Every structure is written in structure tokens, then in C-alpha cells.
């Protein structure tokens, strides 16, 4: 008689053809963290939103900081992949920058990234911070490589690609410093993205020509 195999203790049951429970937890947690901030969300909140037990959440993620780190790494990886797709098209480089800026602004429309990350970093371990920084660096590298290619092809003047990358990324956080009245002067995300890119495009040309 064939011996019946038992699942590992605590391992959630997997339904064939269903979205993996781990993926559901990660996706749900990402949404909750982005909407409410790291301090406000508990593992109980994640379990309740996923309609699973807290033990199931802990089966995949030992701590809330583990879950948060995994959520942010996946989010940045997704943004990196979308950015790479934008930056490797055959469109003019300024058009690529516009789509890059628009995507970033849409992804962070309801988030003050600086405050959001500052709250979380107080609880994260050095290893978790390094993991997130490595993923963030990979995202920046996509833009830096695209800038270097545009310079090589003569689309923009040659300048310091690392500095040009960091300046552009920081320009995309400018909305966090806007009051509501000023935000309303921009008719749409496209409008804001276009003005940021125009400002950056003018600056990079002047900076390179005066060097």
C-alpha cells in the first residue's frame, strides 16, 4: 500500500491553477504599505486582507520587515523592467524621458517617497536596507546606461552620466514639495512630466555646453 505523503507542518494548501498564496500576500502587502505606510500595517492586517490566517503570512515571511523588504524589492524590480522597456525603444531620447517620468509620477502619485521610506528604514536591518539599495541602484543603472547611449549617439551633449541620472531622479520627487494649490496648476500627470523633462532637457544641454 502506497504511503500517504503529508504536507510540511504549517504549509498552506495549494490549489491547482490558482494564484500562489505567496504572490497574493506580497501583492496585497505592497498595496497596503503604499496606501497606509509601514508603521500602520500589521501582519494581522495583511492576513485579513488576503483572507488567510496570520500563520500563513508568517509561513512565507518571518517578520513584517521581511515582508516589507520583499514587497519593495518586487515593486522596484517591476519599475526597473518597465523602465528598461521604455528606455530601449527607438523613440527619441527626450520622448523616452517623458514616458519614464510619467510612469514614475503615476506610480508615486499618492506617496511622499521620502517620508514613506524614512518611516520604514528605522525598523529595517542593515541587510534588508542593502537589498533594497541594490535593487534601487539597478533601476538607476537603466537610466544611466540610456543616458550614456544617448550621448554616444549625439542626442544630448556629453556630461557626467551619474550626476545626470541622480538629478533627473530627484526632479521626479519635486511633487512632494508642492502645496495643493500649486499642484492644481498642472492639468495632468502628462503636463507635469512634460514640464520636468523640458526643464531637465534645457539644463543638461546648458550644463554640458559650458563644461
Describe the structure.
The protein is mainly alpha-helical. It has two domains: 50 residues, Homeodomain-like (Arc Repressor Mutant, subunit A, Orthogonal Bundle), CATH 1.10.10.60; 129 residues, Tetracycline Repressor, domain 2 (Orthogonal Bundle), CATH 1.10.357. It has ten helices and no strands. The radius of gyration is 21 Å and the shape is elongated. The termini are far apart.
Layout of strands and helices, then pairs:
Elements lengths: L20 H16 L6 H8 L3 H7 L3 H24 L5 H15 L5 H9 L4 H27 L8 H11 L8 H4 L5 H21 L2
Helix pairs in contact: 1-2, 1-4, 2-3, 4-5, 4-7, 5-10, 7-8, 8-10
**Domain module tally:** 2
Strand segment tally: 0
Strand content: under 5%
Gyration radius, in Å: 21 Å
Order of helices and strands: HHHHHHHHHH
Determine the structural class based on helices, strands and strand pairing: mainly alpha
Helicity, as a percent range: 55-70%
Uncertain residue ranges: 1-11
Distance between the termini: 81 Å
CATH superfamily of the largest domain: Tetracycline Repressor, domain 2
**Please, how many helices?**
10
User: Which fold name corresponds to the CATH topology of the largest domain?
Assistant: Tetracycline Repressor, domain 2
Mean pLDDT: 86
Sheet with most strands: none
Amino acid at each position: 500500500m502506497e504511503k500517504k505523503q503529508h504536507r510540511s507542518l504549517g504549509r498552506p494548501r495549494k490549489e491547482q491553477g490558482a494564484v500562489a498564496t505567496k504572490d497574493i500576500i506580497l501583492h496585497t502587502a505592497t498595496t497596503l504599505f503604499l496606501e497606509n505606510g509601514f508603521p500602520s500595517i500589521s501582519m494581522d492586517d495583511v492576513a485579513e486582507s488576503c483572507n488567510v490566517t496570520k500563520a500563513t503570512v508568517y509561513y512565507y515571511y518571518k517578520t513584517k520587515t521581511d515582508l516589507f523588504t520583499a514587497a519593495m524589492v518586487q515593486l522596484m524590480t517591476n519599475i526597473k523592467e518597465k523602465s528598461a522597456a521604455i528606455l530601449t525603444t527607438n523613440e527619441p531620447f527626450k520622448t523616452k524621458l517623458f514616458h519614464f517620468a510619467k510612469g514614475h509620477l503615476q506610480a508615486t502619485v499618492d506617496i511622499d517617497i521620502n517620508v514613506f521610506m524614512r518611516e520604514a528604514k528605522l525598523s529595517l536591518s542593515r541587510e534588508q536596507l542593502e537589498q533594497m539599495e541594490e535593487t534601487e541602484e539597478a533601476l538607476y543603472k537603466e537610466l544611466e546606461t540610456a543616458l550614456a547611449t544617448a550621448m554616444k549617439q549625439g542626442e544630448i551633449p556629453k556630461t557626467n552620466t551619474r550626476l545626470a541620472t541622480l538629478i533627473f531622479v530627484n526632479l521626479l520627487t519635486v511633487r512632494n514639495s508642492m502645496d495643493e494649490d500649486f499642484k492644481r496648476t498642472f492639468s495632468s500627470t502628462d503636463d507635469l512630466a512634460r514640464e520636468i523633462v523640458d526643464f531637465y532637457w534645457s539644463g543638461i544641454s546648458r550644463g554640458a555646453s559650458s563644461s
